[in-house]
Amino acid sequence: MSGVHLHLHQLAVGYNGRALIHGIEIGVRRGEIVTLIGPNGAGKSTILKSITRQLEPIDGKVLLEMKNLLQFTPGELARRMAVVLTGRIQTELMTCRDVTAMGRYPYTGWLGILSPHDEKKVDEALAAVHAEHLAERPFDAVSDGERQRILLARAICQEPEIIVLDEPTSFLDIRHKLELLSILHKMAKQEQITVVMSLHETDLAMKISDRIICVKGDRIFACGAPGEVLNDEAIRQLYDLDPALGRFDTQTGSLELNFVKNRKPGEDKDNEKDKDNEKDKDTVVKGWEDKEKGDKNKEGKDSKGKDKEDKNKEEKGISAPRVLIAAPGSGSGKTLVTCGILRLLQKKGFSPVAFKCGPDYIDPMFHRQVLGIPSRDLDTFFSPDGQTLEILQKAVRKNKADIAIIEGVMGYFDGTGKTGMEASSFDLAMQTQTPVILLVNAKGMGRSIVSLIKGFCDYEIRAAEKLPILAADKRAEKPAEKRIGELIEEPIEESIEESSIDESVDKSVDKTPNKTTDKTTVKTAHTSPGKIRGVILNCISPGMAPVMKKWIEEETGLSVVGYLPQDTSFSWGSRHLGLMQPEEIADFQEQIDRLADKLETTLDTELLLKIGREVSESGCPVQEESSEQNPETKKSLSVSLVQEELAEQNLKPEKNLRSSPVRIAVARDEAFNFYYEDNLELLQECGADLIFFSPIHDSELPEADGLILGGGYPELYAQSLAENTRMKEQIRTRVAEGMPVLAECGGFMYLQEYLEVTSDEKQASEKQAPEKQAPEKQYSEKQNLEKQDSGERDSAEKSVKPLSTREPQKTREPQRTQKYTMCGILEGTCKKTDHLVRFGYIEISPKSESGAGTVIRGHEFHYFDSTNNGEYCTAVKPGGKRTWDCMIVQGNVVAGFPHLYYRSNPGFINRFLDRCRMYSGCKIRKLTERIKRRITKRATQ
User: Fold this and answer.
1) Does the pTM exceed 0.85?
2) CATH number of 641-757+822-923
């Protein structure tokens, strides 16, 4: 067919090997607008999905410029064909600009970085659909009309030759329908882009289409120019219309209703005036009734006397109390006290949810063991402005929690860089407007504790006053380091006058002598921007606790919420990456129960709850869950329209449909268990069905479309991993077949050729309880490690002893090493060093692609190093003072030491899942071909 751009040749389409429509023979010329019409369930969407390779044809071919669509690579096809289907894509926490930018991924590398040219194309696409003003708005918060425009902008961003749209005008008002169709008409006629779409509106199809294809039953009912195929008789047959109900107007393309009198302009004016007069009378009477009701209820109370605003907040789950447990430094007992408070609240009938400030993996494991539900990391370095609070509130809603307890990280003001405060507990408290309880280790202290606490309160006020406007949308105007500022290095006199300091201190201190604290009242003397509201004393004797309580409350204005006596029975061991995991502590649950019993007598939970209720939602915009509905079905628009259509046809969705889940095997056992809960949730939001397995205990790799190997302690289980040859062989086979793999830190070590361990890395399968340490020493190593992220690397490395020499001994045998064989997918050997190789936050960008900027944010924390760390990307520490090479991208494998935070670049994980879907489609095609060959072979025998 000469001059044909897209050719459907003897095409048969359907599901599960059953053809719904067959014998399709259609040629579409470049720049043509071709529209499919027909009744619901006729198969219009099925044809479009077959054209776009979402479904494999049952028979026949789809040819693009005489080349079979199946011969194109996914990247080649994405650069030539754009698709806008009815399925609701998962875009939580993505802006409209982020969604539009997804159209540039066919032109980027594996990690999906956008070059300046790509950014320009995104701007042009938004301008083409008149959506520049929507760029920074959350995609899930825009209307249906705006959503369709953004999806069209994403398609334009691909710079395609063909654009395929499934019912693009559904649920749109007249204005948005006309705007959308005018854009499509311009693309076709001015830019010669071929448009193939389906519509329900016959009048619109008649006016905009060059050709119309009528689909009914198992065949194409008619195909031709609108004037040829759209007439009263054809429409009646196509839709099985009863002539008594109406007729099709060939002039306008609309239906005339026989059962309703056709009104003429102005015919009903007189009747309407009479009705309006009656309505006015009713309105006057009703108005007086409403006024009386309003006077009785003008306080905004419901029938139970509860504030309606508060009730609404509770229904949304955003007013649950929350507190952040912070400390002057590491080693104060934050994890211990947090776990005790969580169990105590559970015992009292509350439903708490826990969080950890920073990128920690291990502390959330303790929270999870206590509560039985996941704990999440809240990290202001990882999460773009405004998202941290949203993640917190989403978890509160999901778990129906009535209080949130957040465990801080390091010292209250300790964050990234040498003196920066970004990602500190202070930064988190300010961004989320969360009240803070300061946990202070009082051992060996007297009245000096007052000056320590007062100093923290005063400095917090100064730091808060130096912050820019806290509203999340305003804070994005300045770079992260500028946002928080290097406050410690700057002279205080330059920023705040001495008189103003005195004034702020006066406001924060209750100077009334001998004032006793009412147990049921929380002091609110701190009206400053600071968030510290109370104190918990740790490692203090019961006799000294009331004395210190009186000092602190009289001289700082803060309430002492409680105390915890020193108790050597609460002792958790540690290793080179932090605390032992809770599963390794034999009597962990018993310890937590005893700890909660102790706190029940020493902690004022009512006071803690009152402090938690001082939550301020101001300056913290919340994206509420959309409650928009389909105006026709009244169903929530979050329901996949693709799934509804398939349900109407009584068909199951194919595994390789974009809207269907993709199966991801996730390694999770003793060796691999470092996963951010938010990462796992994002995978599920993007359509992933997670299947957990154990590289240690399982002999079979689950049937899946992709593989994720997280971090952990593979060095402790090197022998078990090496001996499970069946698992290693299966992983190698799947990778050779093209299965996408994402491996971080411990998973990266597992993919390499060899893992060399010392005698100290013993098999944890022995399950021996770790030796208990004195409470004052149990956090000392973690404290030294955390100092390095505050810029004290050189001095800290000298103070941190390697694992093999941590326990003081008179004599030490030479270290024995043993090399274990790992998967061998990547070249290289991993071995233990005597120091932290990398530690801290990083921003990762590929070196091989044009453009500059952060691709994804992550964190490194490891003593092991490799002979092959990879050179695909550059890792940059905040501030840009240190950089190094990292990441291996080999085929469909992306691996390296960095732990990645997916939400810092959602496009990265979407791209990974897209590759998994492509791999799944390839498997299905290969399986189909094998079955066909077997059938043919048997038929010829």
Assistant:
1) no
2) 3.40.50.880
